[in-house]
Design a protein that fits this description.
With 477 residues, this protein is of the alpha/beta class. It folds into 2 domains: 227 residues, Rossmann fold, CATH 3.40.50.10180; 220 residues, 3-Layer(aba) Sandwich (glycerate kinase, domain 1). It has 17 helices and 15 strands. The strands form 3 sheets. A 6-stranded parallel sheet has the order 6-5-4-7-8-9, sandwiched between helices. Strands 10-11-15-12-13-14 form a 6-stranded mixed sheet, with helices on both faces. Helix 11 packs antiparallel against helix 12, helix 11 crosses helix 14 and helix 14 packs across helix 15. The longest helix has 19 residues. The chain is globular, with a radius of gyration of 24 Å.
């Protein structure tokens, strides 16, 4: 198999393990007839009276379909709010398992076109608010959450919302609330994922004001927003410790990476996970990956110890310190790389969510741009002969969004290698010009009918992005 086929297998395996139905069935089941209990990851929640369901987010439709199948007649009513057009998109993609059955007890409200508040989004929020307010101490509310990783925006949202920032939990009190969460936020912070509707907020109105001031928005606020921000926060009706709430993360980037690692090992790779919290501007992350690849190739060439490899390690440690990636222990990771030779191919996996500094008018996404930047960086390194001797290592880099969408394109990401950049330059393509125009999609579309684009279609899930570095020796030192 080619490295591309291996990389595609890893990506599909990772996405497959965080599919909504599979996650729900792993995490939750209902048992008992006379005294039914909802079991969630070993914890039991008695269904004393009625069981209700609410949910919100990009991947929540598939979660709701699986939940209704599990809960059966015990489910009295449900309401979920999802992005506009998602049901039609899933229908077109033939993903029937992600859709609710006819005569479902769960109402679906689509809204928030272009991820902006609109009347339909408000309608969904009001419906969920009214359902929550009517619950009693004997009711059980199951909350399904799949949220967007826009930390500063979410801090503002939860300050202004009745449901976010723990609002839903307060409205549902005294009912028992169980939240099943699909995380696409680095570090899995409960109060940031989907703006934390069932988690106590760790942010204040002052935090919100500071963010608005940072972007010079304080003097352009609607009157309604000014009113909310200037009024004193109302005293919560629920206990401060949210003792009636249980938040459980059932899907995350870490889970997807673990599955990819197992798949890589089954394909014969020595597999290492760098981090599930990769964040930062794509050019800096691309440099980090290029230096890691350079270090592996030096090891394959029998140059894993010595001045050159020490220099690369030092550069990596300095770069990691500058990036401040949460929880990344690069020194420990580099130690694990020591001694790895060309006998087995190496797979380095990572996940998270990078950012792109837009400066052009091209078409692409953060994953495609990251892949192209890594490919260009490796081409430059080989041209300067600072890596292993040319031809000794075969290298492929993949970056893809687990939701199947990367920017305003039909691609989830892209595959890239130094050889692809070589080919592009031979054909007269200016790779740097594509990057300067943020036009990575157009670049990858030039080759073999888009063969280097990762096209999966809508996946129905979302746990941020996944990167895979595959390296194998083409000759022994």
């Amino acid at each position: 198999m080619s490295l591309r086929e291996h990389a595609l297998s890893l990506f599909r395996s990772a996405v497959g393990t965080v599919q909504p139905a599979l996650m729900l069935k792993r995490a939750m089941k209902l048992q008992g007839d006379e005294c039914p209990q909802l079991l969630v990851k070993g914890r039991a929640f008695p269904v004393k009276r009625h069981l209700y369901l609410v949910g919100f987010g990009k991947a929540v439709l598939g979660m709701a379909a699986a939940a209704e199948e599990i809960l059966g007649d015990h489910l009295i009513r449900g309401i979920i709010t999802v992005p506009l057009g998602i049901q039609e998109s899933l229908q077109r993609a033939g993903m029937q398992e992600m859709l609710l059955k006819p005569h479902s007890k769960i109402q679906v409200i689509e809204g928030a076109k272009n991820n902006l508040p609109d009347p339909e989004a408000l309608k969904g929020a009001v419906a969920i608010q009214r359902l929550a307010e009517g619950l009693t101490v004997d009711d059980l509310l199951l909350v399904l959450i799949s949220g967007a990783a826009i930390q500063e925006v979410n801090i503002v949202r939860k300050t202004l919302s009745l449901l976010k920032g723990g609002g839903l939990a307060r409205l549902a009190y005294p009912a028992q609330v169980v939240s099943l969460i699909l995380s696409d936020v680095i570090g899995d912070p409960l109060d940031i994922i989907a703006s934390g509707p069932t988690a106590a907020s760790s942010h204040s109105v002052q935090d919100c004001l500071q963010i608005l001031a940072k972007y010079s928005l304080l003097h352009n606020l609607p009157k309604s927003v000014e009113t909310v921000l200037s009024s004193s926060p109302t005293k919560p009706t629920a206990p401060e410790d949210y003792s009636h709430v249980c938040n459980i993360i059932i899907g995350s980037n870490t889970l997807a990476l673990d599955e990819a690692r197992h798949q890589a090992e089954s394909l014969g790779y020595t597999s290492l996970i760098l981090s599930a919290a990769i964040c930062g501007e794509v050019s800096h992350i691309a440099t980090l990956y290029c230096q890691l690849i350079r270090l592996v190739c030096l090891g394959f060439a029998g140059l894993g110890e010595g001045p050159l490899s020490d220099e690369v390690r030092g550069n990596l440690l300095q770069l990691a310190a500058e990036l401040e990636i949460p929880g990344l222990n690069l020194a420990e990771f580099l130690q694990a790389l020591r001694g790895l030779g060309p006998e087995r191919p190496i797979c380095i996996l990572a996940g998270g969510e990078t950012t792109v500094q837009l400066q052009g008018t091209g078409k692409g996404g953060r994953n495609q741009e990251l892949a192209l930047r890594v490919g260009l960086g490796l081409h430059r390194a080989q041209a300067m002969e600072v890596s292993s001797p040319p031809g000794r290592c075969e290298i492929l880099f993949l970056s893809g969004g687990t939701d199947g969408q990367d920017g305003p394109t039909e691609a989830a990401g892209a595959f890239c290698s130094p050889q692809l950049v070589d080919e592009a330059l031979q054909e007269g393509l200016d790779v740097e010009a594509f990057l300067s125009n943020n036009d990575s999609y157009t670049f990858f579309s030039q080759f073999q009918g888009g063969h280097h684009l990762l096209v999966t279609g809508l996946t129905g899930t979302n746990v941020m992005d996944i990167q895979a570095i595959l390296i194998r020796a083409t000759e022994r030192p």
